[in-house]
Write a structure and sequence with these properties.
The longest helix has 18 residues, at 4-21. Strand 4 and strand 5 form a beta hairpin. Helix content is 52%, strand content 11%. It folds into 2 domains: 4-80, 434 Repressor (Amino-terminal Domain); 90-276, Endonuclease, Chain A (2-Layer Sandwich). The chain has helices at residues 4-21, 26-33, 37-45, 53-63, 67-80, 95-101, 122-131, 136-149, 167-171, 177-193, 243-259, 263-276; strands at residues 106-110, 160-166, 197-202, 216-220, 228-231, 238-240. It is an alpha/beta fold. The chain has a 6-stranded mixed beta sheet, sandwiched between helices.
Amino acid sequence: MTSPTVRRRRLSAELRRHRVQAGMTLSDVAEELEWSPAKLGHIETGIRKWPSVMEISALLRLYGVTGGQREAILTLVRESRLRPWWTEYEDVLPSAYVGNEAGALSVQSYAGILIPDLLQTPDYTAAVARAMGHGERSVERMVAAYLKRQELLDQGGLTRYHAIVEEDALQRVSGDLELLRAQTTRIVELATESDRVTVQLLPTSAGPHPGVAGPFSVLEFDEDEAALAYVEATQGGSIVEAEESVDACKRVWSELTRIAASPQATLSVLRRMALLT
């Protein structure tokens, strides 16, 4: 089933669309139902994460939505209220991103000086977690959460995963040859065993490039769902939904794929690294 996070976003869009079709403003609806405009605004923007069936039914009556459309929207409400596995790991995961990742058809990921999350080995994830200052309990939880996320690559939901890996990201663990060997081998296995996974290596010799602004991912969904981007930052990343901003991320991605090594050349380099370590 599609991620509850994606269901909530779709629910918000459907409610906004029906309100506009009914010719009503937020204030009109709030006055009619004796709600605060903020409450309705939070439902329409998804800030209110778990609206009740009763609340949404009241909106649909007001908008004149009946029959199959009404039942489809109420199904969205019920599915959006499910609590998925990643809510148990909110201390070590960006749940807003993971919720969208779980419902995406395509993910394009550039992680800067780190190996992209879905490609990481458990030992690499643990090393990064410790570098971020996590205690051993949090390290264990992060490893468990990342392994759960990586199940996407073994299931049918995610039809395309394309990652760009900085050569520098691998060089940063070159002091631990066992870890470097395991990590390069893992990437090669994923890229060769699944036609849904594409990896390109961005060589250090490429010099400064558009990705220096920082890590980001572009996520695409069903045809009726707009693409979004996730831009990472030290104090937590942010979901980007504005079309022009998502398009800007796509342009950076396009340039990175142009200057990175081809998938075939990437595999050759990674295999050599695994053999030489």
